[in-house]
Amino acid sequence: MILTRLRRGERIEHFETVRQRKHGGHISISLTVSPVKNAVGKIVGASKIARDITEQKRNQEHISVLAREAEHRSKNLLSNVQAIVNLSQSDTSERLKGVIGGRIRAMSIVHSLFVETRWIGAELSAIVTQELAPYLDEHDARVRLAGPETLLKPDAAQAVAVILHELVTNASKYGALSDAKGQIKLTWSHAEDGQLTLRWTELGGPRVTVPERQGFGSRLIERTISQLSGRARFDWSSEGLVFEIALQV
The domain containing residue 9 runs over which residues? Predict the structure, then answer.
């Protein structure tokens, strides 16, 4: 094709191909080939310029990988939002909007943390701090946190963010955070085999009774955990809710 076009006197620009270096390695190049004419205009040869575009090709592949990753994350996010909408219910439309909005904001917060790590994941302590921010005060011991540095992959980070949001919301309405004397103790551990165990304990709040039926928050938590093949356990102790999850991260 190139020779045919040269014979017609055409110039070939930006023809991308792969060539072999003298030492045997391959290199991506962009060719510009021009016909060479003699004094009477007859084509007697061709001149060629080869530009190394290896780095450009590498950047294009990187962009392509990021685009595919963004597509995957977007679909995952929309799937989670759809689950939130389907599992949310309230007695008025305004309260329903508030419930859904709060759950989506929890996911939005953790997505902001992903940006800081270029989508590698999010630090668990950062997620915890964001969700419990209104109750964290250096002069207030209502919330006690303890656990090692743990970087969660995006799927696990999203799940933990939504779960913590549900726990904080429930505690502020009915549990320990609804009482000035109530306390929250949140601890987590990360085993060598990759299992994360997170334990939420409420103390000093209103007396707790076992729910007669499973609430939408509990259903959302269990569904979120089951999608990651994890386990969730609710212990409705009279002294306060004790909740524990275990999942591979």
Answer: 2-52
